[in-house]
């Protein structure tokens, strides 16, 4: 199956099938189902009907589905999905136009507006996973980047500022998208809105502290504002590190407060030539990272441990590279 799906012929088959669907409404329905298939959750008939109706279609879900036999399947739970996940990914990533994707994604996100915030806690597990996928900042960025319009990706989030103004997850993903675009002050503002909407979101608290350190590193000089940003961020991350206790070993590495401190606090200090302070902090962080690395062989921990040791030993530090779409650690 893997060999078949990665072959040139497989891609051409999908392109041929998708291009042969001339009915605009059916193409949109297939795209709705394909998008729901990528995160492996599918979509319920009731949800699809609401989305189809909201998109202004005159035919209902069953009528549109008649022309998609063999391309769309229903699961035992009654949810609908495309033939398989790789097939769906090909359609979304390679064959659907940006205009089509914008129409479909907007209609799908609009469906969730009816639910009380935080939306993820007020829908079914599968629908919650789909909501998270629809707003995932990396997914949205990649869609616009593929179309050659990465700098316009924020327009997707901007259209929901009123409808989703009380949802913390929405503001979090909006903020992380702005970070990808290098708009770090705007990202900080959106993270503040995320926490105001959903104070209990630990990931948003982590992202906010990280964002403060990013901004501190980019300040033109080490001012009182720079010191405040660092103090607030370091305090928050250290507090979170200790509050996690033994659970810190069970969390995703990118959520480790010590990983954020080991990279971003050190980078902020080094960006302002504060080598002695950076070395002192690196010694403390090295001890904590070493404990984590001994319990987990994750490459991110091992790489960071080596970088901290290099700084303590030689004063050498490779600055983080802030590029559109990512932060390069190497």
Sheet of most strands: 2 strands, antiparallel
Count helical runs: 17
| Broad structural category | mainly alpha
**Radius of gyration from the alpha-carbon trace, in angstroms:** 23 Å
Instruction: Give the overall average pLDDT.
Output: 91
The dominant shape is elongated
Spatial gap, N to C terminus: 35 Å
The H-and-E topology, N to C, reads as: HHHHHEEHHHHHHHHHHHHEE
Strand order of the largest sheet: 1-2
Strand content: under 5%
Classify the helix fraction into a percent range: 55-70%
How are the elements arranged and paired?
Layout: H1 2-5, H2 8-19, H3 24-37, H4 45-54, H5 61-65, E1 72-74, E2 80-82, H6 85-95, H7 98-111, H8 125-135, H9 137-146, H10 154-158, H11 168-180, H12 184-197, H13 202-217, H14 224-244, H15 257-271, H16 275-295, H17 299-314, E3 321-323, E4 326-328
Antiparallel strand pairs: 1-2, 3-4
Helix pairs in contact: 2-6, 3-6, 3-7, 4-7, 9-11, 11-12, 12-13, 13-14, 13-15, 14-15, 15-16, 16-17
Keywords:
single chain, 2 domains, 4 strands, mainly alpha, two-stranded antiparallel ribbon, about 65% helix, two-stranded antiparallel sheet
Question: Can you describe this structure?
Answer:
The chain is mainly α and 330 residues long. The protein has two domains: 2-135; 201-328. The protein is built from 17 helices and four strands. The strands form two sheets. It has a two-stranded antiparallel ribbon. It has a two-stranded antiparallel sheet with strand order 3-4. The radius of gyration is 23 Å and the shape is elongated. The protein starts with a helix and ends with a strand. The mean pLDDT is 91.
């Amino acid at each position: 199956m893997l060999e078949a799906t990665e072959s040139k012929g497989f891609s051409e088959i999908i392109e041929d099938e998708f291009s042969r669907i001339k009915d605009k409404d059916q193409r949109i329905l297939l795209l709705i189902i394909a998008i729901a298939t990528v995160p492996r959750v599918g979509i319920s008939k009731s949800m699809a009907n609401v989305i189809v109706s909201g998109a202004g279609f005159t035919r209902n879900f069953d009528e549109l589905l008649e022309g998609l036999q063999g391309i769309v399947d229903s699961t035992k739970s009654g949810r609908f999905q495309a033939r398989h996940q790789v097939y769906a990914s090909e359609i979304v990533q390679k064959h659907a136009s940006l205009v089509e994707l914008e129409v479909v994604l907007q209609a799908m996100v609009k469906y969730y507006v009816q639910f009380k915030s935080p939306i993820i806690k007020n829908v079914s597990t599968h629908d919650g996973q789909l909501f998270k996928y629809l707003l995932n900042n990396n997914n949205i960025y990649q869609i616009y980047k593929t179309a050659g319009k990465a700098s316009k990706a924020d327009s997707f989030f901007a259209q929901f500022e009123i409808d989703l103004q009380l949802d913390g997850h929405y503001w979090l993903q909006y903020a992380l998208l702005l970070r990808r675009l290098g708009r770090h002050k705007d990202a900080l503002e959106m993270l503040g809105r995320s926490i105001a909407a959903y104070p209990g979101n630990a990931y948003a608290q982590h992202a906010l502290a990280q964002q403060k350190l990013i901004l501190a590193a980019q300040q033109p000089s080490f001012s009182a504002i720079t010191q405040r940003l660092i103090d607030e961020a370091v305090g928050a991350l250290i507090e979170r590190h200790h509050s996690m206790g033994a659970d810190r070993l069970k969390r995703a590495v990118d959520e480790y407060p010590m990983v954020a401190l080991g990279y971003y606090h050190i980078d902020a200090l080094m960006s302002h030539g504060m080598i002695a302070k950076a070395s002192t902090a690196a010694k403390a962080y090295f001890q904590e990272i070493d404990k984590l690395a001994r319990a987990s062989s994750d490459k991110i921990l091992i790489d960071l441990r080596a970088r901290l040791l290099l700084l303590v030993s030689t004063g050498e530090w490779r600055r983080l590279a802030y590029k559109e779409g990512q932060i390069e650690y190497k």
